[in-house]
Amino acid sequence: MGSELIYRGHETQPTPDTYSPKPHKPWVSVIRPIRYMLREQRLVFVLVGIAIATLVFSLLPSSSNNHDYTPISDSHFPTESTQLTHRFFYQGHGGYGSMNLGGKVPLGLKRKGLRIVVTGGAGFVGSHLVDRLIARGDSVIVVDNFFTGRKENVMHHFGNPRFELIRHDVVEPLLLEVDQIYHLACPASPVHYKFNPTNVVGTLNMLGLAKRVGARFLLTSTSEVYGDPLQHPQVETYWGNVNPIGVRSCYDEGKRTAETLTMDYHRGAGVEVRIARIFNTYGPRMCIDDGRVVSNFVAQALRKEPLTVYGDGKQTRSFQYVSDLVEGLMRLMEGEHVGPFNLGNPGEFTMLELAQVVQETIDPNAKIEFKPNTEDDPHKRKPDITRAKDLLGWEPKVSLRKGLPLMVTDFRQRIFGDHKEDGGATASTTMSSN
């Protein structure tokens, strides 16, 4: 029997004559996406969110035509030093630009706080600078090895989330992310800098940090770069008269080298730098018995000791109160000029005149005792601050007779009220006219 191929199912296949298509459904293309979105709840949430946002923005008044700006007066800023800062802002990791809104900024705009490191921030000048920066709204990192600084100077900021304290010696490298660096870390009195000079290495490390993170760097140099000056008063263009191998050269030449390094990093590596040459400064929190003339005179008068005048007492100095210096440092950092700038009070006093002011303030019966002068002690020191006046709008406000009583109050408390330090004991130190 022959085989036969059979196509199974051919009997059920419709013939072309009997085929009829399904009826057309016009809403199927709309219904299917709706069913899918109902199954996928996330899309529903997206659509609901878009609808709510559209409703909110349609109800809000349009601000496209609102160009009414109100200038911010100086009263919006916490201190005098911030009168200039509202003109500047920082971008990125320390980049510098200027706000140019025709002298006006939107009403209610707040200044962006910066992240700032202050080396030597627990010291005399550094702690006062930290106070101003914290009050201005910045975040401050204090780096100090407490060689001359005191933790007590910054303890009132403990617990503030914008304040940090690192015990560290700047002769060792340090990695931080900051916008600005105020480099104050260096022993500034003869008693201390002759024992531990740290100018060059510490400055080099901090400049390296500024280069790595793009921070602006301010060097606190000194009037000692002028040495025993042959020009009076001293202007920033004067190159000085320094003994490179004298007993004070570790400080004098160290600061001159620090200025050189600062300018080399500025020219060679593009680091934004500022240089301040600080003249004699006094005020609360100075180290007691540190060899500087104001602190020694005040401590001696309080302890009923003779005021020690070295030489004939005719050598001159200019004394600025610490708040004036801090104001100048902040204006310099926020300004557009590299410097160097002399920051000091041009009011000139002989050592005898200073002793008499201390007598008037503390004890009219205090005795004056003369001793041989110290080596390389400058005969005259007076800043020319014309450049600071013209370019920074800065000049000192506090006179010696007004500021000295404030310092005396602090010293009296620390000598007689705080026996943990100094304890009222007499210390024999070599005094300088710094």
From TrEMBL:
Transmembrane segments: 42-60
Iron-sulfur as UniProt keyword: no
Subcellular location: Golgi apparatus, Golgi stack membrane
Enzyme class: lyase
Keywords per UniProt: Decarboxylase, Golgi apparatus, Lyase, Membrane, NAD, Transmembrane, Transmembrane helix
Single GO MF descriptor: NAD+ binding
EC number(s) per entry: 4.1.1.35
Pathway: Nucleotide-sugar biosynthesis; UDP-alpha-D-xylose biosynthesis; UDP-alpha-D-xylose from UDP-alpha-D-glucuronate: step 1/1
Lineage, highest ranks first: Eukaryota, Viridiplantae, Streptophyta, Embryophyta, Tracheophyta
A biological process from GO: D-xylose metabolic process
Alphabetical list of PANTHER family matching this protein: UDP-GLUCURONATE DECARBOXYLASE, UDP-GLUCURONIC ACID DECARBOXYLASE-RELATED
GO CC terms, sorted: Golgi cisterna membrane
Membrane topology annotation: Single-pass type II membrane protein
Reported function: Catalyzes the NAD-dependent decarboxylation of UDP-glucuronic acid to UDP-xylose. Necessary for the biosynthesis of the core tetrasaccharide in glycosaminoglycan biosynthesis.
Similarity section: Belongs to the NAD(P)-dependent epimerase/dehydratase family. UDP-glucuronic acid decarboxylase subfamily.
The protein's name: UDP-glucuronate decarboxylase
A Pfam match: GDP_Man_Dehyd
Major place of residence: Golgi
Region (Disordered): 1-22
Domain named NAD(P)-binding: residues: 118-405
Origin: domain of life: Eukaryota
Cofactor: NAD(+)
